[in-house]
Design a protein that fits this description.
Strand order of the largest sheet: 10-9-8-11-12-14-13
Low-confidence stretches: none
Largest sheet: 7 strands, mixed
Number of strands: 14
Strand content: 25-35%
Distance between the termini: 45 Å
Mean pLDDT: 84
CATH superfamily of the largest domain: Vaccinia Virus protein VP39
Radius of gyration: 19 Å
Order of helices and strands: EHEEHEHEEEHEHEHEHEHEHEE
Number of domains: 2
Length: about 290
């Protein structure tokens, strides 16, 4: 992210039941990652619009109102103010399943025996506060391998901050992370967080899944775990490829699935699999047959 220019955030408040639709609309309208947070039972969607002129931002606001959202005042954040921004959002140290600790960059590292994951989100999705990210982290901890698995690789599709892929590395799911996101801000965030955790030498990060998959297949490898916290349409499109790249006994964690999308995605999943239902978004855990 360019430190010379502040980030201008467009913010839209809506009913949580409409947040998935409006988030997708904002992402398409701006070409940027949308961050969602919950305040007093309402969803607040934030997206960077600094690349848009005043007229385009005004039209975006008018369209947001016409779709039923409440447009909040724009927020201008200097590069040096990101810590304050995320503190206001309630992002602080937390523990996943009493095992792995997620600690913001601006907090002290705790003296613990369990794995510690350091994180700075900037404007990418994935702090662990959202129910989809939290469920994925919980499943990674619950099913963590006994000992390290040096032969396996990890795919984090739609990496955002890189939190899920980094967690999988920390928990011993593999020795190499392949992280993909089509948002340049997310790619930068993943790279920065890998560096923050001393794992930048154990990763390949990019925006083109096909290119990364080709490079991966040249090594005749398979993924031990595939993580995809994305939208339902993306899951349906790529699920056959992800499953094909998964090693026997490997796991696939799919999240970000709305109730409306769940039945369709279940029909695409080869059994056996488990569904973890939440209020708004659901997660599918699938382990590939060993033979």
């Amino acid at each position: 992210m360019n430190a010379c220019h502040p980030t201008i955030l467009f913010r839209l408040m809506t009913d949580p039941r409409e947040a998935n639709f409006l988030s997708g609309w904002l992402e398409k309208s701006t070409g940027q990652t949308v961050v969602e947070e919950i305040f007093d039972g309402r969803s607040v969607l934030s997206v960077s619009v600094g690349h848009m002129d005043g007229l385009k931002r005004a039209l975006l606001a008018e369209a947001g109102r016409s779709l039923g959202g409440t447009v909040l005042p724009e927020e201008v954040i200097a590069e040096t103010d990101w810590d304050s921004f995320w503190k206001k959002q309630g992002f602080s140290r937390f523990t996943v399943n009493r095992w792995m600790h997620v600690v913001p960059e601006w907090e002290d590292i705790p003296v613990v025996q369990e794995p510690v994951l350091r994180l700075h989100p900037h404007l990418a999705f994935g702090t662990g506060l959202h129910e989809t990210t939290g469920q994925c982290l919980s499943l990674l901890v619950e099913h963590r391998p006994v000992g390290k698995n040096p032969k396996s690789a990890i795919l984090d599709f739609g990496s955002g901050t890189g939190i899920l892929g980094i967690a999988a590395l920390k928990l011993g799911y593999g020795k190499m992370l392949y992280a993909v996101d089509d948002d340049p801000l997310a790619v930068d965030s993943t790279v920065n967080n890998l560096r923050l955790n001393g794992l930048d030498g154990a990763s390949v990060v990019g925006s083109d899944f096909c290119e990364i998959a080709r490079e991966f297949l040249k090594k005749r490898n398979r993924f031990g775990v595939v993580l995809a916290n994305v939208t339902g349409n993306v899951i349906v499109r790529f699920l056959p490829e992800w499953h094909g790249l998964l090693e026997p006994g490997g796991i696939l964690i799919l999240s970000g699935i709305s109730t409306r999308e769940l039945g369709r995605i279940e029909s695409f999943c080869p059994p056996p699999f488990s569904v973890y239902r939440r209020k708004r978004f659901h997660t599918i855990f699938l382990r590939k047959a060993s033979c």
